[in-house]
Amino acid sequence: MIHSQAESALSRLRTSRGPVCPPRSGRAVSVIPSRRTVLRGAAAAAAALPLAGATAGSAFASSPASAAGSGGHGAAGHGTAGLGRNVLVFDPSMGDAAIQAQIDAVFAVQESNQFGTERYALAFKPGTYNVEINVGFYTHVLGLGDSPEDVVINGHVTVDAQWFDGNGTQDFWRAAENLTIVPPDGLERWAVAQAGPMRRVHVKGDMILMPSPPGNGWSSGGFLADSVVDGQINSGSQQQWLSRNDTIGSWTGANWNMVFVGVQGAPATSFPTPPYTTVDRTPVVREKPFLTVDRHGAYHVFVPALRRNSTGTSWAGGRAAGHSIPLTEFHVAQPGDSAASINAALAHGKHLLLTPGIYPLSAPLRVTRPGTVVLGLGLATLQAVKGNSLIEVADIGDVSVAGVILEAASAHSPVLLRVGDGHTRRSHAHQPTALFDIFPRIGGAVPGGTEVSVQIDSNDVIVDHVWAWRADHGLDGTVGWSVNPAGVGFLVNGDRVTTYGLFVEHHQNYEVLWNGNQGRTYFFQNEHPYDVPTQSAWRHGDTNGFAAYKVGDHVTDHHAWGLGSYAYFNLNANIYTDRAYEVPDTPGVVFTSLMTVCLNGPGGGGILHCINNTGDPVENGFGTYNMKSYANGVGTV
Predict the structure, then answer these.
(1) Is this structure's pTM higher than 0.85?
(2) Residue 163: which residues within 8 A CB-CB, separation 6 or more?
């Protein structure tokens, strides 16, 4: 049955990408046509709902995490944490029915709340729970054990798309981690689009990555890391997917670009038929830090150790290697905290935990101490409200920045996240800084602009899942060629930078500009800007458009695996980009498994070459082009 559903959805996916949903009532959104279809609303209506029955506040009546005053605002004392009203901490003693009621109340608010301001974390203390968890927008589901096996959900942890007529291509901004999931029917559903990571999870059954019927069944994700799936993963309609350091029973399904790095049980490379690209070992990685609670009720943040040439999960042999930091060593920030107060805590040696909510900042957060952890819960969202940057990490090692949305909420921010400051020869190979689940957003919820979304000047940085998104749809007044301008999406000037899961969409300059040497990318997904008004507005020199992924002309060593770039020019303005990928022709620059897609109709335009001046066009109607490899001027099809 699953197989037939997947085939049906894939058939539709290959033949139509136009809008399928009628207008919905509620808060107005931009009417720019979108490949994903335009969300017409219910965001305000959903946001206005209180938590049904038990409120978020009452969730804390039985939880030590409710003690916001213990240790004072922004601090953690006596083993308890002031995590705010939007972290719901559950204990098995609360009873499954009471827990289920609060989970359902959160989902009622968040199911279709795509551009709302609510943020939630659902945190489960070690134990077993018989509950069903539907995961909506800005909802972070996390276990608080040392191991995923410490928190067992006898039920589903589900992302579906019935809020959007079965279209999962807008199932953004949500997460699940550090759990064991035992689906009663043997099937776990995680039908996400971008910015929907699942990490450090054990699924005792099969898993499917597309929405349930009815509806069109589209999906566009995604990212699975440090996880075990005992059974089969069926990708269904997923356009693209990265699995990293997982152990799986088997995999079935493919569409455009499926990449496996350090995955036990992965299919062999067969790109493009089917489009599987498999790298046996992960060269260098740290897993994302995560929140735990011990048997005395004290909270800690566990920071996994660096691994090299690894396969499978970090916890396969028991507790993962790494170190634990008591939450008393963190500044526990809450919405309303200023950049000045947070920076004062960082300057005094504190780590930073960002509890769920919106943080308007008029100055950047400055990380200057090696080993600092900045960890967001519940998709905590930093907003640049004064044309400022949001996070600036000095040229230091061993920093972790994880789990945040970075939003341009004013015009002309120079950069949203920057690591380092200018060219340097300093090596951080033994203690690299790492970025996890970083989601820059320009437009959609609020108007704003930035010159660069993420800039990396330091060497040896590890980037583990980024979605840098210039919005193609959103609330009225937040989307338009000059309303939410964004230059370069991901700029790398440092050497030996490694990325896993690099998603960059709709920026107006190069989506990725990579000037550093010895860079490595494992999986890239891109869409060019939809809303280019004229060719002259998107041109530099004699070149039409900008490459989605540009390797600097002076670079002599760069490797990338599993790249997809898509065009959907929706204004019928005959817009072209000369190439999707642009690289120097030198033996040390090698691209493996690369492809292009045209999704717009006649009169829209398209992509003229896959890489440099090599590869057939995809234009004016649905089409794909695949290339097995490219190096030193030679493409292999």
Answers:
(1) yes
(2) 42, 111, 112, 136
Contacts of 500 (CB under 8 A, 6+ apart): 225, 242, 244, 261, 282, 285, 462, 463, 464, 465, 522, 523
Pairing of strands 605-607, 618-619: antiparallel
Q: Which structure tokens are listed for 235?
A: 């990708």
The per-residue pLDDT for range 169-197, each reduced to its tens digit, is 999 999 999 999 999 999 999 999 999 99
CA distance 392 to 548: 25
Summarize pLDDT for 411-423 with one digit per residue, the tens: 999 999 999 999 8
pLDDT at 628 over 80: yes
**CA 419, chain centre distance (Å):** 18
- Give the residue from 103, 96, 108 showing the smallest Cα distance to 121: 103
Number of Cβ within 10 Å of residue 96's Cβ equals 16
Tokens of 296: 């005395």
Residue 8 has pLDDT above 80, yes or no: no
The residues annotated with a catalytic role in the active site are 527
CA 199 – CA 229 distance, rounded (Å): 11
d(CA 249, CA 570): 41
Residue 89 and residue 378: Cα distance in Å, rounded?
A: 12
- Residues 499 and 186: their CA atoms lie apart, in Å, by 33
Phi, psi (deg, nearest 5) at residue 205: 160, -160
> What secondary structure letter does DSSP report for 327?
G
Q: What is the tens place of the pLDDT at every residue in 499-534?
A: 999 999 999 999 999 999 999 999 999 999 999 999
CA angle 452, 458, 461 (to 5 degrees): 95
Could you tell me which of 331, 340, 385, 392 has the C-alpha nearest to residue 358? 385
One-letter amino acid for residue 490 of the chain: F
Place of tokens 């939007």: 86
In angstroms, the CA 60 to CA 66 distance is 5
Contact predicate 100/132, CB 8 Å: yes
d(CA 318, CA 314): 9
Q: 400: closest CA among 322, 342, 340, 516?
A: 322
Q: Which two tokens stand for residue 105?
A: 């109340």
Lookup: tokens for 468: 């840098």
Quote the pLDDT of residue 418: 98
The region, left, alpha or beta by phi > 0 then psi within -120 to 50, assigned to residue 239 is: alpha
